[in-house]
Design brief:
Layout: H1 2-22, E1 30-40, E2 45-48, H2 51-68, E3 73-74, E4 82-87, E5 99-104, E6 107-112, H3 115-128, E7 137-146, E8 152-158, H4 166-178, E9 183-187, E10 189-190, E11 193-194, H5 203-206, E12 210-211, E13 229-230, H6 235-246, E14 251-258, H7 263-268, H8 298-314, E15 319-323, H9 330-334, H10 336-345, H11 350-367, E16 371-375, E17 388-391, H12 396-403, E18 408-410, H13 413-416, H14 437-441, H15 452-455, E19 458-465, H16 473-480, H17 483-492, H18 500-517, H19 524-527
Parallel strand pairs: 2-3, 2-4, 4-6, 8-9, 8-19, 9-14, 14-15, 15-16, 16-17, 17-18, 18-19
Antiparallel strand pairs: 1-7, 5-6, 5-7, 10-11, 12-13
Helix pairs in contact: 1-18, 2-3, 4-6, 8-11
């Protein structure tokens, strides 16, 4: 047994050695370095089978043109100087988005089990390119066989607290595409702003997308700048972003908060609240607020169903996120309509009422052929029958859900909340907490409390970027880099091939890529100082 373990570690060390030479993040499953090189020039031809594979070629061309100043023509197969993209014609549906990448002196071939697999091969090819401009694009001859460990690899961006234009959202999507992440969780509504156009309810954006000021300090009621903050996405802009993501084989998961975090909606349509509550306002501070959707009115559910009808038309992916977190029960306890609902439905208490609320909305979402995701509070009072749980308050919610045979996405705050500081005394205001890149890299999404069958319900993981203290796009970059690079390896690479000691040299090379992209990022891990690239307009 000891000799087997030694050989396993030796093999992993050998693979790591190759990966260090190639500086690929996330680390591939299998790498073989061969003799020779191939040079990409403006005479190199892309050989592409069809339009779907062409999306990967287009992404590579856009990268080449942006960084190196030229792009490749598409053409037919040649004896040499080509990049060929091939999708395998599987008789059965592939079990994962695997790919093979072979670089030979005559050209490059990327064959994918799926079109997504081809796209991931393109990301690896990009990492073989030099990290300086005005040099020959010579890449090593190599054979790589690779596939992702988890099927759900996510990044969330909160635009409720601070709105960001479409151009910034697209750039965020490009960043996650470069890291082989395949889900973009878009947090679109909250107490501080409603960011998605709903044609049936225009006041949601006419009123709910604007707050009259923003807190600057950590404490409610202090440091308010009294400057209006507003912004929302039209439905055409939503479609534009969803298509942009789909062309990068990324699924967008919209989040429409309910029954809590509803202040912006209640300000727009006060009749959605419990009788006797209010007046409402789009919140200027951060935190949890007592005003929530009234669970005793059928009109509340009709409103939310109407909202979701438009959301479903805009987002074709399988998941709709309903939040379900941080819902105070104070108003429900005093509301005669909510109390009548508890009695009529035979519910135990207000926690049971929240479960009723979520289950009723899930039934509607399921009737439309979609799946519901909620934060782990949806476990309280009884879990909706088909719900997927995002475990954020540690791992226990995910453990409990998996043991109940529910799918789980692990996103615990202590490991993957990228709004936390990367250094212990950051010179940029954050919401609190300390999350260095080393801790992110050390995270294991499958809890040891789960047996083999239960572990199958862990679909993967996700990092979240909440924006209470992030208003500038360069700070978005600073907060996600280099932690997203670490996360990508956690969610993609085999567990037994991960090594922080061997990851750090590759991270140094990744910093050069960030420079090539002109991105802000934290260098704290390797320098042990507060040094970082300048952030414009930091708060």
């Amino acid at each position: 047994m000891k000799s087997f373990l030694f050989l396993t570690l030796l093999a992993a060390a050998g693979l790591q050695s190759f990966c260090q030479q190639l500086n690929i993040i996330p680390q591939p499953v299998s790498v073989k370095l061969n003799r020779g090189t191939f040079t990409i020039t403006n005479k190199t031809v892309f050989v592409v089978n069809d339009a779907e594979a062409g999306k990967s070629a287009d992404f590579f061309n856009a990268y080449l043109e942006n960084i190196y100043g030229f792009k490749l023509a598409k053409g037919s197969a040649q004896p040499g100087n080509y990049i060929k993209l091939v999708t395998k014609k599987n008789i059965e549906k592939p079990s994962s988005d695997a790919y093979n990448l072979v670089v030979a002196p005559m050209g490059v071939t990327i064959s994918g089990d799926t079109y997504s697999g081809i796209f991931y091969g393109i990301q690896t090819l990009i990492q073989l390119l030099p990290v300086t401009k005005n040099v020959s694009l010579k890449i090593p001859a190599v054979s790589i066989a690779d596939s992702p460990r988890f099927i759900y690899r996510g990044m969330m961006l909160d635009v409720g607290r601070h709105f960001f234009p479409v151009s910034v959202v697209k750039k965020y999507i490009d960043y996650i595409a470069l890291h082989k992440i395949n889900y973009f969780h878009w947090h679109l509504t909250d107490d501080q702003g409603w960011r998605i156009e709903i044609k049936k309810y225009p006041l949601l954006t006419e009123v709910g997308s604007t707050r009259n000021g923003t807190i600057i300090g950590h404490f409610p009621g202090t440091g308010n700048d009294h400057i209006k903050h507003s912004g929302f996405y039209t439905q055409d802009e939503i479609r534009e972003v969803v298509k942009y993501a789909a062309d990068r084989f990324i699924t967008v998961v919209p989040e429409i908060e309910m029954p809590g975090h509803a202040e912006a909606a209640l300000t727009s349509y006060p009749w959605l609240g419990c009788p006797g509550t209010g007046p409402y306002k789009v919140e200027e501070t951060w935190g949890v607020f007592n005003n929530v959707f009234c669970a005793g009115k059928d009109s509340t559910f009709q409103f939310l169903q109407n909202v979701l009808d438009e959301v479903l038309q805009l987002f074709p992916g399988p998941y709709i996120h309903v939040g379900g977190d941080e819902c105070p029960k104070n108003n429900w306890k005093l509301c005669p309509l909510c109390q009548a609902r508890i009695k009529a439905e035979g519910l135990k208490d207000e926690h049971g009422l929240q479960s009723y609320f979520i289950q009723r909305m899930e039934k509607y979402i399921n009737s439309k052929g979609r799946k519901m995701i909620g934060w782990d509070e949806i476990l309280e009072g009884g879990l909706a029958p088909n719900a997927t749980v995002m475990s954020w308050r540690g791992e226990q919610g995910g453990i409990d859900a998996a043991k109940q045979n529910h799918d789980v996405i692990m996103t615990p705050g202590g490991w993957v909340y990228f709004d936390h500081a990367q250094v212990q005394k950051d010179d940029s205001l954050t919401i609190g907490g300390y999350l260095p890149v080393e801790k992110v890299y050390g995270y294991e999404p499958i809890p040891k409390e789960l047996n083999t069958e239960q572990a199958k319900h862990v679909l993967g993981g996700q990092a979240n970027l909440w924006t209470e203290y992030i208003s500038d796009p360069s700070k978005i970059e600073y907060m996600i880099f280099p932690r997203m690079s670490a996360l990508s390896e956690v969610l993609w690479s085999p567990k037994n091939q991960r090594s922080w000691i061997l990851f750090k040299p590759r991270l140094k090379q990744q910093f050069k890529r960030y420079d090539l992209w002109k991105s802000s990022y934290s260098k704290a891990t390797l320098t042990n100082t507060l040094t970082r690239k300048k952030i414009k307009g930091k708060k």
